[in-house]
Specification:
elongated
Length: 127
C-alpha cells in the first residue's frame, strides 16, 4: 500500500451556532489541511497519483471555503462549520475529484489552531 500526502491552508470565518462560549461569536482561523491518498497500484511511471493532480484538486476545493464566512457555505447552513464537519466536507469534495480505481482519498485532517486537529475518513477507503 502507498500513501501520499499534501498539505495546504486556508483562511475563513465561522461561528458555532448553539455553542455556549466565545466560539458562538464570529471569528476566523488560518486552517491547516492535510490530505492523504492511498492505493496499491502505481502507474507506468511509478506514481500512485501525480502530485500536480492532487494539488490541482485541492486548489479547486479550497476556493469554495477560502476567505469566506463558512456559515454561509450551503453545506454548513444546517450544520456547524466545525473542524470535524470541515474535514468531512473537504474529504467529500476531494473524493469526487481524485478517487479512481488506483487511488482513493483516505483521510483529511484539519487544524484550526496549533496543537488541535480533527480527521475524517471513510472506512471503505481507509480501512
Amino acid at each position: 500500500m502507498f500513501e501520499l500526502s499534501v498539505k495546504t491552508h486556508f483562511s475563513a470565518a465561522h461561528r458555532l451556532v448553539g455553542y455556549e462560549g466565545q466560539c458562538a461569536n464570529p471569528h476566523g482561523h488560518n486552517w491547516e489541511v492535510e490530505i492523504f491518498v492511498r492505493g496499491s497500484r502505481l502507474n507506468d511511471l511509478g506514481m500512485l497519483v501525480d502530485y500536480r493532480d492532487i494539488k490541482g484538486a485541492v486548489r479547486e476545493a479550497m476556493k469554495e471555503i477560502d476567505h469566506v464566512d463558512l456559515n454561509l457555505v450551503p453545506a454548513f447552513v444546517r450544520s456547524n462549520p466545525t473542524s470535524e464537519n470541515l474535514a468531512r466536507y473537504v474529504h467529500e469534495r476531494l473524493s469526487e475529484r481524485i478517487n479512481s480505481e488506483r487511488a482513493r482519498v483516505c483521510r483529511v485532517t484539519i487544524c484550526e489552531t496549533p496543537g488541535t486537529s480533527a480527521s475524517y475518513w471513510d472506512e471503505e477507503d481507509c480501512p
